[in-house]
């Protein structure tokens, strides 16, 4: 009986100390555009409506239309400052687990409307995460209140290479004031 109690105690301790399993991730991205264009005419007011919804639904996994990693944050950069977000082994998720992106499926960056300066995305000095732009020095300007969204739902996504192509640079475009931005990165570990 004492041996059975010890075995059960050891099994319980092992379960309690075990590394938690990776969380499952289900993702739905929806971008909706509804615009009405009107004109003036003699006897009528002609109008045209553009209604378009772009929807992406991903199951948990590493294949096409799948993702299993997400990182999000609200960040502040001092005047003229930059930061390199290391996508392979430095960022942590909401549960404290270290994230190593092998593929990025979506990047969403919103510059806060109260910013005076722009938020710059891209152009890291070394080990640039660059395959989403044409050249390592390219930068995308996100104006105050603006939004940058990149989505690649296929199995390839935007590949990340640990130690080779894993730094996403975010910068403040000018001196004088800091910038605030929100960022969400969704991807896969393989």
Keywords for this entry:
four-stranded antiparallel beta sheet; five-stranded antiparallel beta sheet; Jelly Rolls; 190 residues; mainly beta; 14 strands
CATH topology of one domain: Jelly Rolls
> Percentage of helical residues?
under 10%
Number of strands: 14
Please tell me the overall pLDDT: 89
The CATH C-level class name of one domain: Mainly Beta
Low-confidence stretches: 3-20
Number of helices: 1
Radius of gyration: 22 Å
CATH architectural group of one domain: Sandwich
Largest sheet: 5 strands, antiparallel
Q: What percent of residues are in strands?
A: over 45%
Order of helices and strands: HEEEEEEEEEEEEEE
CA-CA gap between termini: 47 Å
Global geometry? globular
Structural class: mainly beta
Give a written overview of the molecule.
This protein has a domain at 65-188: Jelly Rolls (Sandwich), CATH 2.60.120. With 190 residues, the chain is mostly beta strands. The protein is built from one helix and 14 strands. It is globular and about 65 Å long. The strands form four sheets. Strands 4, 8, 11, 12 and 14 form a five-stranded antiparallel beta sheet that branches.
Detail the topology: elements first, then pairings.
Elements: H1 2-17, E1 27-38, E2 47-60, E3 66-67, E4 69-77, E5 82-86, E6 88-92, E7 98-100, E8 103-111, E9 119-121, E10 140-142, E11 147-151, E12 158-159, E13 167-172, E14 179-188
Parallel strand pairs: 2-3
Antiparallel strand pairs: 1-2, 4-14, 5-13, 6-7, 8-11, 8-12, 8-14, 9-10, 9-13
